[in-house]
Design a protein that fits this description.
alpha+beta, 4-stranded antiparallel β-sheet, 3-stranded antiparallel β-sheet, 5 helices, 7 strands, about 55% helix, about 20% strand, elongated
Length: about 220
């Protein structure tokens, strides 16, 4: 396994760690200006990446056990040797020189699948960490703006908002309202941020938001 490949794996993992640390630092800095903490969210993307991580782990385990059972009597003393890619590459080289093509292709495919599997496991772990943590932060309203799923938006970034509802919850009892913020970006003039606010927080949220953002007609 090359140093470049190891660097890529470490880099992917650090992306997830960086997102968590960066979001947490922002929460600490703005703690004194916190006004309302709304419900936290269970990130669908986080669950999907977590499921993908489990799939890659299962596939990698099957790959390791399959080739280990072929090599354990003559070429490997322990299953831990299967994770020594340099040793496996030496076996591949030996099989090729001795024209043992069946063993060659088995071990070659193993190392190729193992390294690509590590990449996708690192990527899936990093993404699941990021999205699940952002969902756990939920929505927080500060004096300076709104944090939603780990992303902070200053009030001046919004060009207007409107509120619609109430809507009945499909799982738990109660009602909620949708606060829809117009947030034009460089690529889109109709980009919006949608907050689902429980009815008990509706009045407090609208009072804070209306001070900082102009209310518009429902679109």
């Amino acid at each position: 396994m090359t140093n470049e490949f190891l660097f890529i794996i470490v880099f992917l993992l650090l992306i997830g760690v960086k997102e968590i640390v960066w979001t947490q630092i922002g929460r600490i800095k703005r703690k004194d200006s916190e006004i309302i903490v709304l419900n936290k969210k269970l990130s669908i993307w986080g669950l999907l990446y977590l499921l993908l991580l489990i799939v890659w782990i299962v596939l990698a385990t099957k790959n390791v056990l399959k080739v280990y059972n072929l090599l354990k009597y003559d070429y490997v003393d322990s299953i831990f040797q299967m994770f020594n890619i340099q040793y496996m590459e030496k076996l591949i080289e030996g099989f090729y020189k001795n024209n043992d093509y069946v063993w060659y292709f088995q071990t070659y495919n193993y190392t190729s699948n193992f390294t690509s599997g590590l990449f996708w496991m690192a990527f899936s772990l990093s993404m699941s960490m990021t999205f699940l943590y952002r969902g756990s932060v939920g929505t927080i309203i500060y004096e300076e703006g709104i944090t939603d799923s780990g992303n902070f938006y200053k009030w001046e970034k919004f060009k207007g908002y409107y509120c619609c509802g109430p809507y009945k919850k499909t799982v738990r009892e109660g009602t909620y309202y949708k606060f829809i913020f117009n947030r034009p970006t460089f690529f889109s003039k109709d980009n919006t941020l949608v907050l689902n606010v429980n009815s008990e927080y509706k009045e407090a949220v609208e009072k804070t938001v209306s001070i900082n953002v102009q209310k518009t007609e429902e679109q």
